[in-house]
């Protein structure tokens, strides 16, 4: 059996141990350990398999899902559960409409991203008018102390992710309300990413995600950013899967001087499912937009406010879609292809072996339509 003291020593030494040992623990001892974790969350998060520990406590009914997220000051609107290969809400109601819009949003459907931004906005307005809510108390305290609120999302180079667009739209809407109510507005700080983005992050295991985030993920603000000691962080993402991104941000931001850290998600996948199989994220992403270059994708690209996101670029330029691409090109407006071409080059897709043939094909197509000159330089403005 692991005593509280032994557990604390493991945490302090940042050691990794098999979470299966918890199966032999009595509930009283596990509850004591959980209480210590919740009171020393940053120290606990420094252990490499922190989420494994929390998953075991959840699986053994020491905590429920609300405690699981409350522990890291995380909030969400929708909770999704997998039932016979379909997603349902915690109420048992099917989530087909949500999953369809979510899948489309992940591939750059602006109208669906905007819909979800409105959902987040409406949620926050209700919370800020409820004097018992944690968000109301948080904003009141920040206002009284004349402090700052910074919004962070996943890191990016030149092409945004769905989460980047979603929370930018949400914060712009909310800031109007906050300003009119004399609350501090939210400062949207974009985290840069220098390395090429991971090719298929959504299909990675928890440990692979942790490894990727160490080497290729966000450049996180350091101590000088928090020098004034009055900066609170809100991390926004479209969905919670394993928590590895948020955990890294929370740990480093607090260690660097952030006064507090909260997370806000449009949705969560049941941690009992998603922790053991993070590829469920990819299953959800592709529920309605598949990997084919079909009419659904053409309609998405031709939408007036379409913005190229990384997932869309991957879909278009993936080598396995090369044969389809030549017949697909005429289905999409030249101005859209130009925007996609510029975005792809800005993100170094032309350097990736898997994408080179399709990039070259698009380049030749745009030259033939007199959208690019013979060197591949745009001839018309990108509107």
Question: How is the secondary structure organized here?
Answer:
Elements: H1 4-12, H2 27-39, H3 41-45, H4 50-59, H5 65-70, E1 74-83, E2 86-89, H6 96-106, H7 110-128, H8 134-145, E3 148-152, H9 162-180, E4 186-188, H10 206-216, E5 231-240, H11 244-256, E6 260-269, H12 271-274, H13 280-285, H14 295-302, H15 310-317, H16 322-328, H17 334-346, H18 356-368
Parallel strand pairs: 1-6, 3-4, 3-5, 5-6
Antiparallel strand pairs: 1-2
Helix pairs in contact: 6-7, 7-9, 17-18
Could you report the average pLDDT, rounded to the nearest whole number?
A: 88
Percentage of residues in strands: 5-15%
Q: How many domains, in number, for the residues? A: 3
Stretches with pLDDT under 50, minimum 5 residues: none
End-to-end span in angstroms?
65 Å
Q: How does CATH name the architecture of the largest domain?
A: 3-Layer(aba) Sandwich
Kindly provide the name of the CATH class of the largest domain: Alpha Beta
| Order of strands in the sheet with most strands | 2-1-6-5-3-4
Q: What would you note in describing this structure?
A:
The chain is of the alpha/beta class and 383 residues long. It folds into 3 domains: 4-65, no CATH class; 74-285, Rossmann fold (3-Layer(aba) Sandwich); 295-368, no CATH class. 49% of the residues lie in helices and 11% in strands. The chain contains 18 helices and 6 strands. The chain has helices at residues 4-12, 27-39, 41-45, 50-59, 65-70, 96-106, 110-128, 134-145, 162-180, 206-216, 244-256, 271-274, 280-285, 295-302, 310-317, 322-328, 334-346, 356-368, and strands at residues 74-83, 86-89, 148-152, 186-188, 231-240, 260-269. The chain has a 6-stranded mixed β-sheet. The mean pLDDT is 88.
């Amino acid at each position: 059996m692991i005593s509280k003291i032994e557990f604390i020593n493991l945490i302090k030494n940042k050691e990794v141990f098999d979470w299966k040992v918890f199966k032999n623990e009595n509930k009283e001892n596990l509850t004591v350990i959980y209480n210590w974790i919740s009171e020393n969350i940053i120290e606990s998060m420094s252990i490499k398999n922190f989420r494994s520990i929390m998953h075991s406590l959840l699986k053994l009914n020491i905590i429920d899902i609300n405690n699981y997220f409350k522990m890291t000051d995380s909030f969400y609107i929708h909770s999704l559960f997998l039932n016979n290969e379909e997603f349902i809400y915690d109420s048992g109601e099917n989530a087909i409409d949500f999953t369809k819009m979510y899948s489309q949003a992940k591939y750059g459907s602006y109208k669906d991203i905007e819909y979800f931004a409105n959902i987040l906005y409406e949620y926050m307005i209700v919370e800020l008018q409820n004097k018992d809510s944690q968000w109301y108390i948080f904003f009141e305290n920040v206002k009284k102390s004349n402090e700052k609120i910074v919004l962070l999302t996943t890191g990016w180079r030149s092409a945004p992710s769905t989460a980047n667009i979603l929370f930018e739209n949400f914060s712009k809407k909310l800031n109007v309300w906050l300003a009119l109510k004399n609350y501090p507005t939210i400062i949207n700080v974009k985290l840069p990413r220098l390395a090429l983005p991971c090719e298929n992050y959504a299909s990675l295991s928890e440990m692979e995600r942790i490894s990727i985030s160490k080497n290729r993920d966000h450049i996180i603000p350091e101590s000088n950013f928090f020098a004034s000691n009055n900066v609170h962080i809100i991390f926004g993402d479209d969905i919670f899967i394993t928590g590895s991104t948020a955990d890294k941000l929370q740990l480093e931001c607090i260690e660097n001087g952030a006064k507090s850290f909260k997370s806000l998600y449009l949705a969560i996948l049941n941690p009992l499912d998603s922790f053991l199989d993070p590829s469920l994220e990819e299953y959800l992403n592709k529920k309605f937009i598949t990997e084919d270059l079909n009419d659904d994708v053409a309609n998405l690209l031709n939408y007036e406010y379409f913005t190229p996101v990384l997932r869309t670029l991957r879909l278009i330029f993936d080598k396995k879609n090369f044969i389809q691409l030549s017949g697909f090109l005429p289905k999409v407006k030249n101005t859209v292809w130009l925007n996609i071409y510029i975005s792809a080059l800005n993100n170094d897709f032309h350097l990736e072996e898997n994408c080179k043939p399709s990039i070259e094909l698009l380049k030749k197509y745009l030259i033939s339509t007199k959208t690019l000159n013979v060197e591949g330089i745009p001839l018309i403005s990108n509107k």
